[in-house]
């Protein structure tokens, strides 16, 4: 076994068997499980729910009450008695509410909801509002004395805006398509954020701990600084990808087995929305982001002398990461801003933002490639720099400022 | 094989940590590197280990100039001890042994031997963090020699050890010497150096004050260390010819002479009234030599 392999397996398996790793993975798995089980879980609690019972007191004289169509959650029935009687029914808890319909000037429908206090949730109110809206449209159409066919045509009339770009052969993306891609990209950005936050501090702490306990000197004198740096970064990446693999794998299995594969098809639909080139780009950006931040974590970890200083050292990187993430959130609303364009080229945020641009805006493929090249170039540069720098930084134990440490590390590695 | 260092120099910006240092450590011999804190001992070790790149100078192994010594043949005990706190003693020893290119089976046998030898048998599966400092030190030492290195570098191996364990360590070092390893170690404890080393190098501010066999160094000064016990007065002894200084501890006087020859005159003088309890003439102790060489006297 080569020294790299020995160091790699020691680092990888010790962390894989660590309680913290097992517990976080289990928590994530439970969260995914809960997500899939949610409809079932919520049905346990709402199975006793009877639909809301609303009495309609129709004072329009035009049978507008018949236009209110209920559903599984709300049942409407026409009340034949007086308003006072209907109010009494609510007070006696025979009904949940009374909908009083009147017509001003014989054409303008007016409605009033009469309930005991706190009887309706926001959701119920919105639902009744929508149903009332539809009823109002029907009422207006009736007033225009249209034939049922004419009325039906008005109600079902719908137009979709097809996008056609005329300077190349492929069609542009539709708004729906863009919205979905923006959401998927946001998911990717969130995933990168989560991954980097947890794994970057892990590698920084590991290296700082080895430095703090002075194991470093023995390790790099028995193997080499390069072997150590490489083994630590690859082990952390492997650990991260192992966790992702476990979570994704179980997610897919759950999607396949729950609710007769309903979610499985949903996932399939999501993938068909985005193109395969988008998927490849997103994956590349994700992997490169992981490498970039792991390497950065290793360098920062090698600079501090004590484990408790790690949080402070990686703080600026966490800030950059948060900026990237918030810009990605802003892109959900409008992915075509200048801000997003700029940050999609900055290597530290590109991987969170560029996928959104690829999926949700119209841009040349060269822009994505350029951003990817900048990111890859940064990684190569950072890697070369850290190789040179690492030998010195792992032997530096000064307590001075960040730049003082950098300076000393560089002079030691000469 | 012999490790030779010629004109080794390390400069950090404007500070010279090691200044044209030359030394030669033979196989089957123990070489001591002595100096105050900051004299450049650890920097020298780090250059030999290739953790630092020398500014100037060459390192030879078996007479041949090498850029990097084969890492698998070096054993290194750093000044600051370091081990994985959550790893069991035996696993720790085997992990670092594998990192020096040995296979698990051989290491297991060797580990058993040394664990037994250092009286750690009941701590075999204990996590390192639960061990006492002395026991951790023993594990660290086993780690540094588990792969039977041909070159063993020990940076302050005795610090933090009680006398019993220091004795165990000394015996282990001598055993490795018997096996033919080249051993270099640094220490503040001159008694250990005196007892173990065949050759030594005195370092001050990166410069070598002396490098060679220990008896050569001692004979440079001659036998000027005289110990007396008898019915004398301190003032009376101080007036004798060639006496540089007198110190009295309990009933024993220590005289420092300017010349070995003066001892005879003093002998005749102090025995003129007959029997005295003690008269012994010795070389200066290494500690005294070191204080004299370094000058300011704080070791």
UniProtKB/TrEMBL annotation, chain A:
The keyword Transmembrane applies. Pfam families: ABC2_membrane_3. The chain crosses the membrane at residues 21-41, 183-208, 229-258, 278-301, 313-332, 338-356, 368-387. This is ABC transporter permease. GO terms for molecular function: ABC-type transporter activity. GO terms for cellular component: membrane. Keywords: Membrane, Transmembrane, Transmembrane helix. It is a multi-pass membrane protein.
UniProtKB/TrEMBL annotation, chain B:
The keyword Metal-binding does not apply. InterPro entries: AAA+_ATPase, ABC_transporter-like_ATP-bd, ABC_transporter-like_CS, ABC_transporter_ATP-binding, DrrA1/2-like_C, P-loop_NTPase. PANTHER family: ABC TRANSPORTER ATP-BINDING PROTEIN, ABC TRANSPORTER ATP-BINDING PROTEIN NATA. Signal peptide: none annotated. This is ABC transporter ATP-binding protein. The keyword Membrane does not apply. Residues 3-230 form the ABC transporter domain. Keywords: ATP-binding, Nucleotide-binding, Transport. Belongs to the ABC transporter superfamily. SUPFAM superfamilies: P-loop containing nucleoside triphosphate hydrolases. It comes from Sporolactobacillus shoreae. It holds the Pfam family DrrA1-3_C. It comes from the Bacteria. One of its GO terms (molecular function) is ATP hydrolysis activity.
């Amino acid at each position: 076994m080569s020294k790299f392999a020995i160091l790699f397996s020691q680092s990888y398996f010790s962390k894989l068997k660590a309680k913290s790793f097992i517990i976080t993975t289990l928590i994530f798995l439970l969260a995914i499980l809960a997500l899939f089980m949610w409809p079932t879980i919520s049905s346990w609690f709402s199975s006793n729910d009877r639909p809301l019972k609303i009495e309609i007191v129709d004072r329009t004289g035009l049978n507008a009450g018949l236009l209110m169509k209920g559903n599984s959650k709300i049942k409407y029935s026409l009340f034949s008695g007086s308003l006072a009687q209907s109010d009494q029914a609510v007070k006696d808890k025979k009904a949940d509410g009374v909908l009083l319909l009147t017509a001003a000037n014989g054409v303008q429908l007016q409605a009033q909801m009469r309930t005991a206090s706190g009887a309706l949730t926001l959701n119920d109110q919105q639902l009744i509002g929508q149903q009332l809206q539809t009823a109002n449209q029907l009422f207006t159409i009736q007033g225009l004395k249209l034939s049922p066919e004419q009325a039906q045509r008005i109600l079902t009339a719908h137009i979709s805006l097809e996008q056609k770009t005329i300077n190349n052969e492929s069609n542009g993306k539709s708004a729906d398509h863009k919205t979905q891609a923006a959401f998927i990209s946001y998911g990717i950005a969130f995933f990168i954020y989560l991954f980097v936050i947890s794994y970057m501090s892990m590698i920084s702490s590991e290296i700082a701990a080895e430095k703090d306990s002075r194991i470093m000197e023995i390790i790099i004198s028995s193997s080499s600084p390069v072997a150590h740096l490489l083994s630590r970064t690859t082990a952390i990446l492997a650990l991260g990808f192992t966790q992702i693999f476990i979570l994704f794998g179980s997610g897919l299995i759950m999607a396949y087995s729950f609710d007769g594969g309903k979610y499985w098809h949903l996932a399939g639909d999501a993938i068909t929305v985005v193109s395969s080139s988008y998927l490849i780009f997103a994956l590349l950006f994700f992997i490169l982001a992981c490498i970039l931040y792991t390497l950065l974590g290793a360098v920062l970890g090698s600079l501090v002398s004590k484990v408790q200083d790690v949080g402070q050292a990686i703080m600026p990187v966490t800030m950059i990461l948060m900026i990237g993430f918030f810009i990605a959130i802003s892109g959900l609303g409008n992915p075509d801003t200048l801000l997003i364009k700029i940050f999609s080229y900055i290597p530290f945020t590109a991987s969170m933002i560029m996928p959104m641009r690829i999926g949700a805006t119209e841009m040349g493929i060269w822009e994505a490639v350029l951003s990817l090249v900048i990111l890859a170039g940064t990684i190569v540069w950072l890697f070369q720099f850290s190789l040179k720098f690492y030998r010195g930084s792992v032997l530096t134990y000064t307590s001075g400022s960040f730049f003082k440490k950098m300076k000393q590390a560089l002079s030691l590695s000469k | 094989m012999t490790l030779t260092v010629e004109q080794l120099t390390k400069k950090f910006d404007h500070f010279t940590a090691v200044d044209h240092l030359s030394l030669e450590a033979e196989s089957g011999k123990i070489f001591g590197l002595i100096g105050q804190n900051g004299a450049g001992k650890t920097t020298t070790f780090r250059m030999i280990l290739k953790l630092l790149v020398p500014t100037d100078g060459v390192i030879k192994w078996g007479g041949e100039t090498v850029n990097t010594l084969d890492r698998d043949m070096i054993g290194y005990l750093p000044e600051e001890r370091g081990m994985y706190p959550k790893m069991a003693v035996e696993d720790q020893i085997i992990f670092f042994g594998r990192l020096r290119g040995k296979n698990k089976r051989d290491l297991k046998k060797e580990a058993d031997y040394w664990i037994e030898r250092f009286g750690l048998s009941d701590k075999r599966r204990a996590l390192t963090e639960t061990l006492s400092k002395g026991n951790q030190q023993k594990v660290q030492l086993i780690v540094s020699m588990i792969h039977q290195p041909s070159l063993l570098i020990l940076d302050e191996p005795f610090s933090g050890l009680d006398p019993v364990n220091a004795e165990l360590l000394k015996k282990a070092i001598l055993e490795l010497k018997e096996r033919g390893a080249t051993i270099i170690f640094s220490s503040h404890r001159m008694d250990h150096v005196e007892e173990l080393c065949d050759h030594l190098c005195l370092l001050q501010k990166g410069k070598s004050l002396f490098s060679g066999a220990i008896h050569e160094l001692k004979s440079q000064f001659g036998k000027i260390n005289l110990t007396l016990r008898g019915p004398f007065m301190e003032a009376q002894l101080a007036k004798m010819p060639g006496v540089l200084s007198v110190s009295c501890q309990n009933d024993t006087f220590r005289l420092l002479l300017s010349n070995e020859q003066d001892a005879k005159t003093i002998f005749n003088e102090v025995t003129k009234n007959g029997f005295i309890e003690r008269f012994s003439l010795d070389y200066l102790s290494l500690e005294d030599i070191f204080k004299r060489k370094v000058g300011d006297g704080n070791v």
